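hey so i finally got around to running the thing on that chain from the lab meeting. sorry it took forever, my laptop kept dying and i had to restart like 3 times. anyway pasting the input first so we r on the same page abt which one it is
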Amino acid sequence: MTRNLFQLEYSAWWVILILLISTALSYFLYSKRNIPWNIAQNWVLFGIRLLGIFFILLLFLEPSIKKVVNTVKNPIIFLALDNSQSVIARNADSITIKEKINFLEKELLDQGVEVKTILLSDADSIVFDHRTSRLSDLFASIDNSDVENHVATILLTDGIYNRGSSPLYRNYLEPVFTVGMGDTIPPKDISISRTRYNKVTYKGNETPLRFEINQQGYTGKNTSIALIENGKQIAIKNLKLHADIQEVEFLISSNEEGLRHLVGSIPVENDESTEENNRTDIFLEVIDGKQKILIVASAPHPDIKAIRRALDETDSYSTELYIPSIADEKPRNIYDVVVYHGAFNSGISYAPMEQPGRWFILNSESMITSINKSLPYIKIKTRGGQPDKVTGSFNQNFSKFTIENTEIFEEYPPIEVPYGDYFVTGSSEILMYQKLGSVLTNKPLMVFNEDGSQKSAVLIGENIWKWKLREAAINDNSLQFDNFITKTVQFLSVKNDKKQFRFKSRSSTFSDSEPVLFDVEVYNDIYERIYENAIDISIIDENKESQSYEFTDSELNNTFRAPSLSPGVYRYTASVKVGESTFKENGEFLVENINSEYLNLTANHRLLKNLSFKTDGQFIHYDEIERLPEIMKTQNYKPILTSNEDYQELAKIWWYFLIIFVLFSIEWFLRRYWGGY
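ok and heres what got predicted. didnt touch it at all, straight out
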């Protein structure tokens, strides 16, 4: 559609009136007979005055003029840098790397290409200190940048990733040029590459600890692995290195409840490439008994096996299955959590003896009317009979518990949910929202509710066993899915209390790269929440050294953030005075050293070559990085020109008033020049 050069806020018929007024005023001035200039000159002055008055009066109609703005957008290349520790772990010079990156940026800028640098961390400068290699995060940051004329990506990395999915699984619209850093030759090294054990064990039981020893260049060497607790060696095993990978097993017994911190350690050889991977931390939680979980279902289903396997692997839970159509009698035990699979189905009928936590998993047979009647905090208003296929997107503001690395859930296969409107009310929190394709909705996929006496959760869909399989296919394990299941059951199994003072670590386990957080709640005698309380806190490490802190809670801040803590087991006590009474809380938590960067130091250039081939890019070795500007120059990337049309009011344009001024100035000059006054 063609837009006019000019437009008016009022009807164009007003222009005729303005023209008539301008003509009348000009005629009144130049209709006199006694003039010192001739008729032709009089008509010239008449025309100039008419235009001047017309342009002034025209402003009353608020005219606008079309304005075209041309913008040149230079080609943009993202320089994605893997700044993890593994890149420089084998004696690479970080200063030289920075110099070559600066050279690359300068050369590309000289070609008229805009360079945007993306790091794994949010640091303002390049520091190779990131403790995980999640290469997929680099490309996710690029996808979220929303820039125009993105023509290519340059990825500088050793190709090692120890978190997230492989970069090969993504779809790319632009070519990816990869620069292979690191060394593809395995280093001479002995490492504890993997530790396998149950993190939760039982008082009085023997727990197996299995260490996977990886070595390169030390075949035939005699060495040992020691198990250390509280600075004392509690076990040692000698071994002869005869294969690249060997396994050593210890059996340890636990006689006291609580957290245990053990260290597995291998002596460091003089010519090893690094000693960072010669030790590993082991944290055990010793408990007194298992919690009982009942799964009630209308029929056998793969979801049930996935849930039971995730719970059974922790050794913290014992699961029991009850299918009314198959079982002869109802369960008679007292359970900590009841999971209803296919909840609100006419085939399910079971009422627990007490009030355990309840997890409702809906399916296509669940009756919406029963859901709306039985669950006061969620209402579903269906539209039609066809379900939606959605994935889950985690609510980053969810506060009941934490789940790390939630990005993997968006890569899970979709599940079917009822199509319609959802309403969540009361003391409920949404853990996951429904994501329909790439569109994030505000509809819940999983909701938690806690009303003071009962805890419950609702998962609006079934077939989550596919999630477990997808994660296993991507990461060779299903740790995130299993963590999701166990955290859900763990929350539901914790009984509510009526303590006036609660001070609890947000998790029982933290990594040494994240803050240690404590949630604080203080209540008065009638159980009303109160604030501005002075709380005394003491944190004690394994060496019995104590650090004291003071914290005052408020409505805006009821979370205590502990300072940075080194790996180990910590105990804490907290006290607060409410009126004349003093309340105390205590507990323990552990800080793990999670550093995967030194477990694998062999660069994976094959992955980078495959990535460049897949995206029509090119792979070069880091030693040849000086060639990269010439390679990019041959791509002949061009800027793009964009034009935007808009209307600008004449009253805001300076040159319009200049025209009016010039018209009246010319009139004044001619009148004086031709003899007027």
